[in-house]
Input
Amino acid sequence: MNQQDFEQRNEPVWKELDAVVTALGKKVTPASITLSAKFPQLYRQVCHDLAIARERQYTTHVIDRLNLLMMQGHQYLYSARAGNITRIMHFLGGGFPAIIRREWRYFWLAFVLFYLPAIIMGLAVYYWPQMIYTLLDSNTVLQMDWMYSPEAPHIGRERGADDDMLMFGHYIQNNIGIGFRTFASGILFGIGSIFFLLFNGLFIGAIAGYLTQRGYIDTFWSFVIGHGAFELTAIVFSGMAGLKLGFALLAPGRKTRSRALVDAAQVSIKIMYGVIGMLVIAAFLEAFWSSIKLISPNIKYIVGAGLWALVIVYFLFFGRAQDAD
Amino acid sequence: MLDSYREIETPEGVELLLRPAGPAPRALAWLADVFIRSIVYMMVGMFFSVFGRFGTGVIMIVIFLLEWFYPVLFEIYWQGETPGKRWMGLRVLNDNGTPVSWGPSLIRNLLRAVDFLPLFYGFGLISMFMNRDFKRLGDLAAGTIVTYKDNLMHTSVVPQTTASTPPLALKLEEQRAIINFAERSQRLTDVRAAELADILAPVTGAHGFASIQRLYQMANWFLGNR
Output
């Protein structure tokens, strides 16, 4: 059969698939449901025609047209079905902690990279307060003094709801952004994640050490303990997700580097889903709970300890049934 | 086939050809998206600034969401296109040619933060030039590829003339080359077309314009317009 006969004979099928694919790309209507029943057979026919056209070396314009048509059909046939609620529940109900436990090496590495500099810097600043100036300039330190000093005029006064919203926006933008960057920069052979973990650890340690040494214990610690459970843990998790990316590039094992990277990213992004959730919770607590002045520090310590316990229990014990897979 | 094509094997056993998009159209698409976002920021800013500090908080959240999730949501719900990509005729696909899904889209868009370093997509550009599919770091990690939506490079058809028999038997690839020339020649200047046709002077037995005409006639013959 020569090309023109081939085109003439199959033209109706091609036109029909084109019409069906166009209709299916739009809103679902009763008419499009009837059409979708025809789709598989038309699609298979076009795949078949494309194979024949290639084999017989027909001209480019026919092959390109069939290739495009098949591409459109392929897109429709293999489009992902909408993410369903059961998968999210499954993830929260155990999938997330199971991943964290399975990747325990990266967790402990990120944990140490974050908390070790925090503790060392915290102790250093506690015993030698002038050490704070290695990280912060004097203006920032003064401002911090003013924020947490129990004698400051604003302490004990309630801040308005509009200020809470302002801070919520700020925490969302700032903290989740830090989490994302800590993860993403892991692709630079892990260096970026290590940098962000160390840097944030040093910073947080220095501030905690300084304010403790100044004696602002109730104003500072009662403020941070609650949301810290989610925020600090999430920062460690995003570092861990980034380290996994970097390590896949450094030591791909028996896979190619690109394959190892893609596989690692599939796991890391699941950790990041969890991180996003945790940081939103943290921002919410920080803006609307930690800042309430009416509640006594003791209650905040108790609730904060409860939140830490919740986080630890969740990641230690939830989803044990999924550990095997 | 041309180098820049990327072949993917489908479950149907038929190969699909994708045409990966290079840095220039992608940069334009990105600029268009930046422009659209800026307009949204301005509108949201003007509206919510009335609400004082509360409004500022809302503006910050909107900016955060749009900066990180604008591409993700469009890629998921618009079959791999953002408005900028649609304008440039681009589309993001998974490496196996299926529409991009949540995980890969989120990976490639979070890793923008690194591709953007040290400034204006420096790392992304270096990465694009180091692999044949123009993948930036985010695409490498996500297993995604940015392609042209259609790969219709050749829309012209062979000009209809009277068919005439070629003077000698030609192999299938040789026939294909002549047909492709006939298709493409309309997009070339006359001089260039004649120059190419002259290469086959021993076969056509003619020069210049006459040689082109002879090749058209042969192409028609191969196509079966006898």
Remarks:
- Chain A has a mean pLDDT of 85.
